[in-house]
Design goal:
The chain has 171 residues and is mainly beta. The protein contains two helices and 16 strands. The protein has two domains: 3-89, RimM (Elongation Factor Tu (Ef-tu), domain 3, Beta Barrel); 93-170, PRC-barrel domain (SH3 type barrels, Roll). The protein has helices at 71-75, 98-101; strands at residues 3-12, 19-23, 36-41, 44-50, 53-57, 60-64, 81-85, 91-93, 96-97, 105-108, 113-121, 128-132, 138-142, 148-152, 157-160, 166-167. Strands 4-3-7-1-2-6-5 form a seven-stranded antiparallel beta sheet. Strands 14-15-10-11-12-13-16 form a seven-stranded mixed beta sheet, with no helix packed on it. Strand 3 (36-41) and strand 4 form a beta hairpin. It starts with a strand and ends with a strand.
Length: 171
């Protein structure tokens, strides 16, 4: 089983053992579907914890786990890295996983950099890619043949039709 780093435990929240999790932005859309976390401390496997519930809390996520039942236990998790099985992360396209495409450069047909692929959203019609431009603006583009023209997996580069871009602040 191959594991992917998805975030970090940043602190405790209650005497019951709840703790705070800060996901990598590339995996934030997957947080609510997590059923457990594989935790590494100092680069070594530390433990695995089952998740009872996970919910947004002040820019992070509040995690309630039946296997972490005291503040003392939760304190041991602070600063630990959280991993998840790569095969359990979503597939973006048949044969491609999110790990294959996250961080890809998004260029237009003339080779001009539009931005970096930072996230995606599920949609009934097509998945929506979220692109962050070099100056921090965000754009959306549907993952369909009219808008996403090609993908070079070896170099992690998408060629897109800029006519399909929608500024995130315009929706």
């Amino acid at each position: 089983m191959k594991l992917t780093l998805i975030g970090k435990i940043t602190g405790t929240h209650s005497l019951k053992g709840n703790f705070l999790f800060l996901p990598d932005p590339l995996y934030e859309s997957e947080v609510k579907s997590l059923d457990y976390m594989v935790i590494y401390k100092g680069g070594e496997l530390f433990r695995s914890v089952k998740i009872r519930s996970i919910s947004p809390h002040k820019g992070r996520y509040l995690v309630d786990s039946p296997s972490v039942d005291s503040v003392e236990d939760a304190i041991t998790l602070k600063g630990c890295d959280v991993y998840y099985p790569e095969e359990a992360l979503p597939d973006v396209d048949p044969g491609l996983s999110w790990k294959d495409v996250k961080g890809s450069r998004m260029i237009d047909e003339e080779g001009v950099l539009v931005g970096t692929l930072v996230d995606y959203m599920d949609s009934p019609a097509a998945d929506i890619f979220i692109i962050e431009a070099p100056m921090g603006d965000r754009y959306l583009i549907a993952d369909n043949e009219a808008h996403v023209l090609s993908f070079d997996k070896a170099n992690k580069v998408f060629v897109i039709n800029k006519e399909g871009l929608i500024a995130e602040n315009e929706i």
